Amino acid sequence: MSLAEIARVTEVGFAGNIGLQFTEATGDRVRANWVVEPTIHQSHGIVHGGAYCTAVETLASIGASIFFGAHGRVVGVNNNTDFLQASTDGTHFGEATPLHRGRSQQLWQVLIRNNQHTLIARGQVRLQNLTR
């Protein structure tokens, strides 16, 4: 799957509201960045936790899908995201890497950093491998 194909798939629907720009996507690592806009803020003017959850799930799902490839598809079955530091603006950078890739499930970790390279959120997603 090329970066252009990934962009087309992710710019529609729920994840499209964040504005993810993918810079690397393989079965071993997925990287993306996005500019924080007020449209993803919560009522106190900071990034809504759901935006981080969405980014975490999207990056992990893409990496897991590329890894599983022609064997079938993957679906997320658990997303656990920790919000470590509030953020209001700037560019965020996400990187997803696998912790475990088995026959039936995968576990991916995603780290999200700000412009100053400070870790602001971290998550992990467990995905089920569904064979064709």
Automatic annotation (TrEMBL):
Please give the family membership noted in the entry.
Answer: Belongs to the thioesterase PaaI family.
Keywords, A to Z, come to: Hydrolase
Record-annotated Thioesterase domain positions: 44-120
List the InterPro entries hit by this protein, alphabetically. HotDog_dom_sf, PAAI_dom, Thioestr_dom
Name the PANTHER family for this protein: 1,4-DIHYDROXY-2-NAPHTHOYL-COA THIOESTERASE 1 (PTHR43240:SF5)
Provide the protein name: PaaI family thioesterase
Origin organism is Rhodococcus pseudokoreensis
